[in-house]
Each structure stands twice: as structure tokens, then as C-alpha cells.
Write a structure and sequence with these properties.
By secondary structure, the protein is of the alpha/beta class. 27% of the residues lie in helices and 30% in strands. It has 8 helices and 14 strands. The chain has a 6-stranded mixed β-sheet.
């Protein structure tokens, strides 16, 4: 199953510990994405709070399955339902006395499609001090084809994203807070993951500063040939592009990487 899909990336300055302000910005951006005819709006990593991890006990919400529940996830679900599009991004999740960096994706009806809890915690931002790691990868069927979910630092772990491609993923979605001075790491890894897995990669990074960390944006959509279809600069913006996931089939036919693998040797 595959089809064209219009994606909007909400590149925003996530204000640390200010969820109401961040939510207001995100709501406006999602409304604009809907006006542009987008099927999917992707927000950055920890878009509602930024890296206010020590405040997780007061900022985190339980994961909601639809808009009828309470908390930040439920409010995001309501936005998806109101505008009739898929909406996703990561937020602080409270679950059974632990806190997670959770990428929730809601459908046009506001119902939870999937939730991915960040598997690889980033020590340079002290995630392991405040958060629990996720224990499951998430690849799900969507109208445009199978889609794999990851978050920021996961980009440095090709095994995870290859596992999605091996199960048929046509698109990888990656919200991030990726800072200076590693802009070229970000750009290179996005292209590498698209090329080696012969799939589309849509990645939404934030801009602005939190403490000593400065974030450069460069949100982008990369096609299975490794071509950059759209890429942002270092300011708040809404990037919108339409992709056709049938290109994945063409690329995989022309260079049959998956048929030529020899996993028994590695």
C-alpha cells in the first residue's frame, strides 16, 4: 500500500518549560498545515517543554488514546481531530512512576495510531538521569505505506532504522532537538539513512536555545535516492512537501540492496 502524502514539518523554537506558549505556536502551525492540504504535520522532539527534564513530574502527561482524555497528549489528539490530519511529535510522558520521551502519532480522527518511546537516551542532554528508555520499535501501516518512528539520537543507530526498512518501511519520521556544532552530522546521517534504507526520511528539528545548547533547525525531507526535497534554515518555519512513496519500489528494483544482503555473515 502506498500513495502520495503531503507532509508539513513544524520547525519551531521550543521554549523550555513553557508548554502553553509552545502549544499555542504548534496549534497555529498545524492549522496552517491543514490549510495547505497536508496529510501529516510533524513537530520536533519534546516540542511542548524542550529539555526541562528535571521538571518532568509537573510537565509530563499520561499518554492519551483520544481527545476525551486529559493532558498534553489529549490536547494534541484534539488538534489532529479538529484539522483532520495526522499529527505527531515527542513529549514527556508519565507512566507508572516513570517518565519517557514519547513520540505519539494521532490520526485525523484524533485516535492514537502509535506511540514510540525513545530507545536510545542521549547522555549529553542528561536524558538517562531523568527518563526511562523505551523497549519497543514501532513501524505501522498508514495510508501512504509502512512508516517507522524514531527520535533524534536514534538517527545514529542504523540498526534500528534498517530494521524498519526490512519490515517494509517506506517512510521514517524523526522529531529532534539536534544542536550545534553537529549540523553536518545531522545532514549527513539523514541522507545516509535514506540512501542505505532506500526510503523517504522526514525529520523535524527545532531552533533556538536552551541553556548552553543552540539548535540549528535544518528540518528536511530526503528521498530514497538521497536527494534533499526540502530543507529549512535556522529560523521558525513550516516546510511543506508532497512525496510519492511508490518511488521506494522503483529505487529498490533498480538497486536491489535488500535482495543482495548476506545477513548470515554479519
Amino acid at each position: 500500500m502506498s500513495s502520495p502524502v503531503t507532509i508539513s514539518l513544524v520547525q519551531m523554537d521550543c521554549k523550555r518549560g513553557e508548554p502553553e506558549r509552545n502549544f499555542a505556536y504548534a496549534a497555529e502551525a498545524i492549522a496552517e498545515a491543514a490549510r495547505r492540504g497536508s496529510d501529516l504535520a510533524l513537530l520536533p522532539e519534546l516540542w511542548s517543554t524542550a529539555y526541562a527534564l528535571e521538571a518532568a513530574p509537573t510537565l509530563a502527561s499520561p499518554l492519551a488514546h483520544d481527545p476525551s482524555e486529559e493532558g498534553w497528549f489529549a490536547r494534541l489528539a484534539a488538534l489532529a481531530a479538529h484539522h483532520g490530519l495526522y499529527v505527531g511529535g515527542s513529549m514527556l510522558e508519565a507512566k507508572e512512576g516513570r517518565y519517557y520521551n514519547c513520540f505519539a502519532l494521532y490520526g485525523p480522527d484524533g485516535v492514537l495510531c502509535a506511540a514510540y518511546r525513545k530507545v536510545h537516551l542521549f547522555r549529553l542532554m542528561d536524558e538517562e538521569k531523568y527518563l526511562a528508555p523505551g523497549e519497543q520499535r514501532v513501524c505501522l501501516d498508514l495510508p501512504w505505506g509502512k512508516t517507522g518512528l524514531a527520535i533524534c539520537y536514534d538517527l545514529r543507530f542504523p540498526e534500528l532504522l534498517r530494521s524498519y526498512a526490512l519490515t517494509g518501511a517506506r517512510l521514517l519520521l524523526i522529531p529532534a532537538e539536534w544542536p550545534h556544532p553537529r549540523r553536518e552530522h545531522w545532514r549527513t546521517l539523514l541522507r545516509a539513512r535514506a540512501i542505505e534504507n532506500q526510503c523517504f526520511v522526514a525529520a523535524c528539528n527545532r531552533v533556538g536555545t536552551t541553556g548552553a545548547a543552540s539548535f540549528f533547525g535544518a528540518s528536511a525531507v530526503i528521498d530514497p535516492w538521497g536527494e534533499t526535497l526540502v530543507e529549512a534554515g535556522e529560523v521558525e518555519t513550516l516546510l511543506t512537501v508532497t512525496i510519492d512513496t511508490t518511488l521506494v519500489d522503483e529505487v529498490r528494483r533498480r538497486i536491489p540492496v535488500f535482495e543482495d544482503r548476506r545477513p548470515e555473515l554479519y
